[in-house]
Protein: Molybdopterin-dependent oxidoreductase
Organism: Devosia albogilva
Amino acid sequence: MSLLMWTSELKRARGFFAAAAVLLLPTIVAAAEPLPAPEGPVILVVSGNIEVTNTDGGAAFDREMLHGLGLTEIETSTPWTDGVQVFSGVLARTVLERVGADGAAVMASALNDYTVEVPMEDFQNFDVLLATTMGGEEMKVSDKGPIWIVYPRDNHPELQDRRLHDRWVWQLKALRVQ
Ligand SMILES: Nc1nc2c(c(=O)[nH]1)N[C@H]1C(S)=C(S)[C@@H](COP(=O)(O)O)O[C@H]1N2
Ligand SMILES: [Mo]
């Protein structure tokens, strides 16, 4: 191997290591704290391509753990409720960040095993809520609870689209990152 070739190999290798370091950086930053075990009834399990788990099945959350990530309110009308409602819950993005999720989409499934694919961009582009209360009241299973995926529909005309209705999963029980 000539010296010239060797130098260009070396440069390429250095470029590779620099790129690898940049790629690894978000992983290191995202290496979140361990998640404590849930103490109350589990209302959400996040699984799939995540870094932080607290059970064999993934990251299990009871209501308190979920709320502990920070509550956000959104006011919006929905095609399934009357007038403008105040919802509160945790941003989907916050939950996914907490477990170190890495993927292009999330399979969201409900208690009745209804399952739909939600693109990760939805959570990045919009303040999508994993809502647990509506009008200040905890949502019961009979009332789209314990968790309803609520989009800030009134704030974004592009969300006022029937083609997105299948992503408003109610009685949500699990998110699988893929
Ligand atoms: N838990 C649960 N959420 C769900 C569904 C479901 O079957 N179960 N259907 C979805 C689909 S495909 C659509 S279009 C809307 C259906 O709302 P509708 O029953 O009022 O038409 O809710 C979405 N959320
Ligand atoms: Mo649908």
The pocket of MTE (ligand 1) is lined by residues 80, 110, 112, 114, 165-166, 168-171 (CB under 6 Å). The chain has two domains: 1-32, 36-177.
